[in-house]
Amino acid sequence: MNASSITPLKVSQVSQPGSRRFRLSLAVLTLTTTAFAIWLFLWSLGDISKNPATWLLVPLFALLVLIISFSFWTSTLGLWLTITQRRQSASTSQSSHSSLPRTAILMPVYNETPASVFANVQAMIESLATTPHAADFDLFVLSDTTNPDIWLEEERMWGRLCQRLTGPTNVFYRRRPKNTARKAGNIADFCERWGTQYDLMIVLDADSVMDGQTMVEMARRMQDDPALGILQVPPVPVNRLSFFARLQQFSARLYSPVHMEGFSSWASFDSNYWGHNAIIRVAPFIDHCGLPTLPGVAPLGGEILSHDFVEAALMARGGWKVALAHDLAGSYEECPTTLLDYAKRDQRWCQGNLQHMRLIISEGLRPISRLHLAMGVMSYLASPLWLLFTLLGLLAMAIDGIWLGSTQERISGLVVFAFTMFLLMAPKVWSLVALAFDRPRREQFGGWSKIIPSVLIETAASVLVAPIMMLFHTRFVISTLLGEKVQWNAQNRGDGDIDFLAACRVFGPHTLTGLVGSALILFFAPGLFLWLSPILLGLSLTIPFSRILGSVELGQWLAHRRLLLIPEESELTPILKLQQRALEQHEQYANAHDRSQLLGELLSDPGFQALHASILQQTAAGLPAPEAKVREWTQAILTQGPESLSVEDRRQLLLDREALRELHIQYRVRQLHPDQAATASPM
């Protein structure tokens, strides 16, 4: 089947039955709930004509409660569908096709730990080998790595893996000399070089791992629906040990299914793409999903950073369906293990999502695509808006000269607060209700005796984390709007606590804000302290709390008591078993070979030298260096050793095939005949 020969149907012609009804119901319920909340809020304010601060409070509250109401009714719809339909996970389609379209599995990497990357690669290849369709897949490790030592370790592990694997799935390795446009550019480079050879591509992240049966089913669904452009499988976070990581894993595993059910019901074939753990039809991706360069300079102009939402919108604009396969299991990723790493990732995402403000009004986008982009923007703008709402509320009280008001005003304020908290917290309750109808899944979480305390722990932690992230997001938004660019560096994926000095440096402003705010409230309006305590307490305790969240010991202590348990911890799935075994093998190999000595191994090992030269030749990545520079490198290596070169010099040398070949000869001669080599002059 040639994907380029397929003429897509219009999305409106292939919409999932009932999606329009779900959208209309969701819109009516959301607007009705928002209107009711606004009425309650106005009732609590009383006469607002004399207080200009309240004039701003009302529209601000309306926007914020609209967002909350939309999320509430999405989850409520998901609960209703979960209970009434009882959808089975990992369902498979019935297809008469004996073979699948040619599919490339793409793993872009950027200065990652090679042992982890190739453990994931090995696990997926071994998992595919258990299916009858392994020969329909090729796997590409697409390296954008800039660290020369990691680059060589990637090549070494790839070569070793290729020698060990005997299945029909090919594993290719390519490194770009320049990582233009980051991950989006990495995928685009693959499409330009090899895209026409494949009908489909499964895009992963460096920490992604997917079951072979899941990938086969994804390809089969794309084959059965020729109008399907992108099929996203929600990834489940696993494998991390810190308290903070286990909180994320538990909340995602317990709460997400109900919300995803509701989201899928109204998004239908106008769904979204999250940048990884998804399968894409290559030809329309090439035809429609080329990213524009935004006018102006970064951070809001230039290259689009958060490419996934935009690519989904462009695919839908081209008339192709974008769907969510929320019923498929076997799709995994890893999450940040400390609050600091989580905030760093969010800063990158914040800058990328704020660029979408300029794309919402782009010509030709479908209304639902505009909604997805707007939701991505609001996921970060909501924090400064909530902060502004809180400050305006305090200002309104100061203008009125009252801090608690009459008994009726206190009661009405409590009603508004309770109603807002109900909208925020109900989705978690809905997940527990859904669990009550699914005994096998309930037992995978450890039963009610473990689920209830775990939910209480997760809820308490999320309440304390919320004001911390509110300040972070507020700073990220303001700094982005003021023109500050963030560096998109390699993500820290390992477990590890944050030290005390680092916590003081990063979270000192949060702590100072919490302490000063608490002092001011206790002095001027002590009656409000209880109301604001979740915010003030979370900020005041940020330094010790951030260290507690990053604690691996606490995470393991909870795991030993089966708290914050996820089904994958109760019993490892087959792909995670393969991943764990492969990781042990690759880490053992990595520990036995010092990464800093790999350049010396490259110069002394003919096999390694041939492998590296072949990679440069096959990917056309060679780049000759100036002769003077080569002589300088040769002199330094032969007299002081390969480790004497700087990082930049090593990177340039690794791109020069001819210089490496000559150096290899001289280095080998020096090793084999040191007395003769001592009298020889470098080239």
From TrEMBL:
Keyword Mitochondrion: no
Membrane topology, as annotated: Multi-pass membrane protein
Chief location: membrane
Protein's name in the database: Glucans biosynthesis glucosyltransferase H
Pathway connected to this protein: Glycan metabolism; osmoregulated periplasmic glucan (OPG) biosynthesis
Residues spanning the signal sequence: none
NCBIfam families: PRK05454.2-1 (NF003958), PRK05454.2-5 (NF003962)
Domain Glycosyltransferase 2-like: 202-425
GO terms assigned for molecular function: hexosyltransferase activity
Cellular compartments annotated: Cell inner membrane
Gene Ontology cellular component annotations, sorted alphabetically: plasma membrane
InterPro entries membership: Glyco_trans_2-like, Glycosyltr_2/OpgH_subfam, Nucleotide-diphossugar_trans
Pfam families per UniProt: Glyco_trans_2_3
Entry superkingdom: Bacteria
Entry annotated with the keyword Phosphoprotein: no
Residue stretches spanning the membrane: 21-43, 55-81, 385-405, 411-430, 451-472, 515-539
Similarity comment: Belongs to the glycosyltransferase 2 family. OpgH subfamily.
Keywords assigned: Cell inner membrane, Cell membrane, Glycosyltransferase, Membrane, Transferase, Transmembrane, Transmembrane helix
